[in-house]
Each structure stands twice: as structure tokens, then as C-alpha cells.
Design brief:
1 helix, rod-shaped, single chain
Length: 145
């Protein structure tokens, strides 16, 4: 073999090693992100199941200081690297937001509570690279269902 052939062979081998390492890095990053997405989804689903198990909270009982259904003491459904789940908003039967963080709760101008709420729960990884949103309908008659 000549010097040129040896150099060409070394260059080809070097390029294949670099390409292989790049592919392994990409696979590892994708795998980590998929695992993180699964973890965030699991915590959000646990929060959703927790909300479903709670008794109905009429909108007249909402407090801006304490979100209904998920309270700091109920957030034992966390996991390392995952932020605690939060209730983003609660929407009444007529589509009016009756609760969302840092605002005064309202019954949406309804004369009576219709007994049905759409609760939006959001969770994310602590670095916010993965976020998921879950919805659950909470009914005043859910104990009968």
C-alpha cells in the first residue's frame, strides 16, 4: 500500500467513527427525551386520577389562594426532574373560565352552578423541555356514576 492509500483509508475510517458516534449521541438524546415525556405524562395522569377521585367543588367555593382539587398537600404525585402538576384553568358548562391561577374565581355569571366542570391539568419537566396537558370532566353527580 502506498502512503496515499493509507491516508484515504484513515480518512474513511475516521469519518465512519465520527458518523457512528453522532448517531449514538442522537439516539441517546432522543431516548432521554422520550423517557422524560413518559415521566411527565405519568405524573399528569396521576394528578388527573387524583382530581377524578375528589368530591365536586362548586365554583362558589373557589378561592384564588387555594386551587380546588389539587392542593400543595395533595402533591405527593411528583417525581424527580418533574415539576408538580398544576391546574391551569377550570371551565364551566357554558365555556366560561371559573378558575385560573392568580385571578379572582368567578362562577361565570351563572345563576346556579351547573355541576359540571372541565379541569385542565398541566405538568412539565423542571427544565420545561417537555410539557403535557390533561383534561378531566368533574361532575357533581360523579359519585353516582
Amino acid at each position: 500500500m502506498t502512503l496515499v492509500e493509507v491516508i484515504v483509508a484513515v480518512v474513511i475510517l475516521s469519518l465512519s467513527v465520527v458518523a457512528t458516534l453522532g448517531a449514538l449521541t442522537a439516539v441517546t438524546a432522543t431516548s432521554n427525551q422520550s423517557r422524560e415525556a413518559a415521566d411527565v405524562g405519568a405524573v399528569a395522569r396521576n394528578a388527573l386520577e387524583y382530581v377524578k377521585s375528589r368530591p365536586y367543588v362548586p365554583c362558589s367555593s373557589f378561592s384564588s389562594a387555594t386551587p380546588p382539587y389539587l392542593t400543595p398537600s395533595s402533591l405527593t404525585i411528583t417525581q424527580n426532574g418533574i415539576a408538580p402538576p398544576t391546574i391551569v384553568q377550570i371551565t364551566s358548562l357554558d365555556g366560561t373560565k371559573v378558575f385560573w391561577p392568580n385571578t379572582s374565581p368567578t362562577c361565570g355569571g351563572l345563576s346556579s352552578d351547573p355541576g359540571l366542570q372541565l379541569v385542565e391539568i398541566q405538568d412539565s419537566s423542571t427544565d420545561k423541555s417537555v410539557t403535557t396537558t390533561q383534561w378531566v370532566v368533574v361532575s357533581q353527580n360523579q359519585a353516582d356514576e
